[in-house]
Design goal:
The chain is mostly helical. The protein contains eleven helices and no strands. The chain is elongated and about 75 Å long.
């Protein structure tokens, strides 16, 4: 019985993939768009909150605790809470996804700037640099390896979470996975899952290479 069933419903039916390529491509593009929108918004919010935490020491614990508390909220529950207010829209998907990046990104930014040696800051100030110039030209480059690592982790995590947004019709490749599960049709489920994994790996590699290009001194130091 198993062999005939597998023949009727194979893991991947390539004819379906070819015939439905437009659907697969649209789902992949939507998945990428949701990931980048959530990361961009999360990075902006994290930079602002991390700036406050670094400027005021007492602000760091409540900010990180709040981000950690948000991270514990189940994504399905959060989507459900937002639907009555924002509907089955892209905002309903992007806002929670951006929120889930906060803990990772805020921690990475804070750790990165705190890793800058105090003598480096003093030397930059002694050279007459303004605080803004010192941050942008001295502290930020030194903190960048930590920040890049945080962005990589947040990216991979977000690619996975985007699939859950399929329950509100905004899941990108998650829609293929959900469609396959509903119909017990393995092909769209396998393709959606495989492309999600591939997308996460490709984005992680791209960010790694961008980070390596932006911080060439780390390679020389490692060598």
């Amino acid at each position: 019985m198993i062999a005939p069933l597998q023949a009727q419903n194979p893991i991947i039916r390539w004819s379906w993939f070819i015939d439905e390529w437009d659907q697969v491509q649209a789902a992949l593009v939507q998945h990428l768009e949701l990931t980048l929108l959530a990361l961009g918004l999360g990075l902006l919010l994290s930079a602002a909150l991390a700036t406050v935490a670094l400027r005021y020491e007492r602000g760091a614990p409540p900010i990180t605790a709040g981000a950690a508390a948000f991270y514990t909220i189940p994504s399905v529950a959060l989507f459900g809470l937002l639907v009555p207010y924002t509907g089955l829209s892209r905002a309903t998907a992007v806002l929670p996804l951006a929120g889930y990046t906060l803990l990772i990104l805020i921690t990475a930014i804070i750790d990165g700037f705190r890793s800058v040696p105090a003598e480096v800051r003093e030397a930059a100030s002694g050279m007459g640099m303004s605080p803004r110039r010192r941050v942008l030209t001295v502290e930020l480059p030194l903190a960048l390896p930590y920040i890049i690592t945080g962005i990589r982790i947040a990216t991979v995590s977000t690619v996975g979470l985007v699939t859950v947004a399929a329950i509100i019709g905004q899941g990108g490749l998650g829609r293929l996975i959900l469609d396959g599960l509903r119909r017990a049709f393995w092909t769209p489920m396998t393709i959606g899952a495989s492309l999600s994994i591939l997308l996460a790996l490709m984005l992680d590699l791209a960010i790694y290479r961008l980070g390596a290009a932006a911080t060439p001194w780390t390679r020389r130091r490692g060598a």
